[in-house]
User: Fold these one by one.
Assistant:
Number 1:
Amino acid sequence: MGNFKIIGIVGSHRVEPRNTYYLVERVLKVAGKGNEFETEIITLADKKLNYCTSCFECNHGPCPINDDMSEIYPKLLEADAIVLGSPVYIYNVSGRMKTFIDRSRAVLFRKDANLKGKIGAGVVVGFVRNAGAEITAQALRNFFEVHQMFYAGTVIGNSGRKGGVTNDDTGKMFAIQIGKRIKELLIQLKNVQLEYDKETVDKIHSKIY
Ligand SMILES: Cc1cc2nc3c(=O)[nH]c(=O)nc-3n(C[C@H](O)[C@H](O)[C@H](O)COP(=O)(O)O)c2cc1C
């Protein structure tokens, strides 16, 4: 088991071809290289996700909706880094990704179960590079901001060519960069936490002895 858990959430509505999945996987391969890293990709296309009903139960307890989000919440809470991947659907995130984002409110206001301080990165894949990709990237970034996470950046890929995003050299290059950035941030953050723990421990010891 690794020290760091990195999960990818793929918001495409189809299983094949897997352009968004491909770039998310590439980010995770770079970020998750090494024994101390553990990665997992969750594809929303094969999950049953209901809309948020705006009941506000999550202001003081868990989300009462009984669907596949129940198995995704613990994975989000356990993760050290979360990579959100969405195709561009009419200049924005996919409906599935938006439903996931809305349902994430269930881990927004709880003191004991939230995403604060985790690392976040985005993956966006559009048919072309200039038809809503940056707006979609902003929508993913808003998720990280709302949850008070540390933002590592977003890679924009484009699938409108033979072979799809697998032949987008720019997208693939940025995926590697984002993957490295996640890894660096994870290590830096862990060191800060270790340092903090050491100080706390030292203080406790100085009081005892
Ligand atoms: C409903 C729908 C709307 C789309 N709208 C856009 C768009 O506004 N801009 C764009 O660049 N691509 C658009 N596309 C193309 C997808 O973003 C593109 O095919 C992407 O690679 C799909 O990712 P996937 O292969 O992971 O499913 C749209 C596709 C669908 C199905």
Number 2:
Amino acid sequence: MGEETGNTDWVAIAARFGAEVVAPVAAGLDRRPNPEDCFSWEIVEAASVAGLRTATLSTEYGGAGINSLTTAMVVEELGKADLGVSVVIAQTLKIAQTLQAAASPEQRDRFLPQLANNPRFLLAIGITEPENASNYFLAYPEDFRTTAKRVDGGWVINGKKHFISNGNVASLYLLFAQTEPGKGLVEGSTCYLIPRPSQGFSIGRVHDKMGERLANNAELLFEDCFVPDENLLGVVGGGFDILTRFFPASNAYAASSVLGVASAAYQRSVDWTRTRFQGGAYLIEHDSVAADLARMRMLIDAARAYVHKAARAADLGGSDWDPTLGALPKVFASEVATEVTTTTLALHGGHGYMRELGIEKLVRDAAAFLHSDGANRTLLLKAARSIRAELPTNG
Ligand SMILES: Cc1cc2nc3c(=O)[nH]c(=O)nc-3n(C[C@H](O)[C@H](O)[C@H](O)COP(=O)(O)OP(=O)(O)OC[C@H]3O[C@@H](n4cnc5c(N)ncnc54)[C@H](O)[C@@H]3O)c2cc1C
């Protein structure tokens, strides 16, 4: 990863795309009652035309080969326009990076041209299931309920995943299933490539979410779904090796998406307080309000610096990588976004509570990443484990 093309300014492309294509329609899509109607294929197709959907794909396969740091910046720009759209694209960008790194040459040649050439080709990853969420982040010795059993020429998958981003709209899935019962989901699970449609694989509920509504999340249902051997990603029992080795920047992208929401809220606060006149002055001229703005700016800049450190370290790898960077930047960015959007709501007074200004959407959107990509408390515990692992053992 890291062979970026020429001098193309992907951050500027993402900013323009967000402002011109996404922002004008985001509020209207967000308000649709049926979650499936909030998702827009027009936006996905336009992102394909702009090159954003495939920007992490290597130039060999028709992408731009942008690195993780640039991807984080692109994802933040999209998040400024709408969190859901940022997530739809970010999922595809990060899973494409993993596919390129973890897939065999034959798998790359089979799947990556489809990803490059189909303007609606999106990617999804299915790990979470009703019984196992924090468990897999914390390596709790529990089996996935979704199982893969060996048969002649491949595997038969049964079970259910839920909460899966792009779940009902993706064309290809990275799916984690238990292959060695009793070994725990970290040591006993295997990753499979599941194209859609596949016999025995269907979509269940599309979740009705509080925010991030322009992205869809869905249940994945497997009933005797046959997966041929050639669709096994990595090795049997090595499912979590795929995540730890090839997903280092994932947490940074999640952080960037929600940081986009914080940045948008901050800008709304600046614009509002410069024009709202109360107490004989524009709000921005009252010291307590000005201090709020300075605090927002400080939190956002600090979160961005942290996220970029993680994305850069993910690109460089080796000793630059610190496992806490795979957990904590998202925790910090989502807490910052929660504070910044809530302060923005306060600065807008009653106007912020009325839906027409779109401030309440920012508050709802920011809340998504307190839970998505791992619940924050769970990620703090995950980071704490790697801190403990750094310490010398007693005696
Ligand atoms: C918008 C959204 C998008 C998502 N997209 C995807 C996706 O694309 N693919 C995917 O696989 N998953 C996805 N997820 C799942 C996500 O990664 C989280 O793992 C999941 O949301 C956690 O949900 P849960 O309610 O099951 O949490 P639980 O694991 O039940 O945790 C509930 C609470 O208990 C705490 N807790 C849990 N275990 C412990 C413990 N051992 N000690 C102390 N506290 C603990 C947690 O920190 C949390 O506060 C998504 C989730 C959301 C909300």
Number 3:
Amino acid sequence: MTEPLLVVQNLRCHIPSARGAVRAVDGVSLTLARGQVLGLVGESGCGKSTLVRTLVGAAPARASVSGSIAVSGTELTAMPDEARRAFVGRHVGMVFQDPMSALNPVVPVGRQIGEAVRHHHGLSRAAARARAADLLERVGVPDPGHRLRHYPHQFSGGLRQRITIAMALSCEPELLIADEATTALDVTVQRQILDLLTGLARERGMGLILVSHDLGVIAGRADETAVMYAGRIVERGPTRDVFARPRHRYTDALLGAIPRLDAPPGTRLRVIPGTPPDLTAPPPGCAFTSRCPAPGDRCAHEPPPLRVEPGDHAHACFHPTEGTSP
Ligand SMILES: Nc1ncnc2c1ncn2[C@@H]1O[C@H](COP(=O)(O)OP(=O)(O)O)[C@@H](O)[C@H]1O
Ligand SMILES: [Mg+2]
């Protein structure tokens, strides 16, 4: 059996704050194979960004991190900082919501990509430039030879995001993580960028983690979906199964909150009542209890483990739905 690309075990990231430690990631385990797309979804504040940042060694300063992260069999958490940064830089690419935060506004994009390429491959300036043009072409920037000379502000939001994807690809990563990478873009551009990312993953046998608060981004693209709530994975499985047969009440509620195009006019959008718990003092049992439409006696006291039973996908719920989406 080939080794999985990414194996995360019992990962925790607790961030100190004035009100106490924020348990942003609280015991997450997941696996990703090469060429596979994993969707990571959940409402804002559930810990998705902290999880992926912790994976790449960029947890907030002074955070307390424990658990295990292995990329292609190499355990990262035990590595000295510098070796780990170098390893992650070679194997993992990241794309964020705001491309401007990843780009230098006063440097032409060709030079920025070229520098990333030189850093990873030690190419000459001319070779790096050719490679930068090549990367821009691969991510669908028209007229790349000419565009190399342009500055970030001379591109549209969608093209700018393509440029940061080109930069993330410059090291030929085995794993690409896109954290709300299309959230700021309009729907058409969003679809194009998501198709580009999933296409690259399939074509290059790269692992891709698509992080979004929007289930619509994951649907039809991710092979597997992991649903995160209050720092934990509450449901995980093949995307088709999770969407067609959500088991956790939180997933069910999230799916119910997606606007449906076939809904009769005037139908009110269902939102999930209440708000996610304060992660400095999460409830002792299931964190969704106070918002759950069908809580049982144990739920408030006992945290439900993420269970996998034969013929079903993993879910952490004592009273799962029958598995029919609303
Ligand atoms: N640097 C930080 N300092 C303090 N709290 C943080 C920091 N980063 C994230 N958090 C808290 O961690 C929790 C998870 O946040 P985040 O990982 O950004 O969630 P998501 O990406 O799902 O919206 C939130 O309660 C957030 O306020
Ligand atoms: Mg986030």
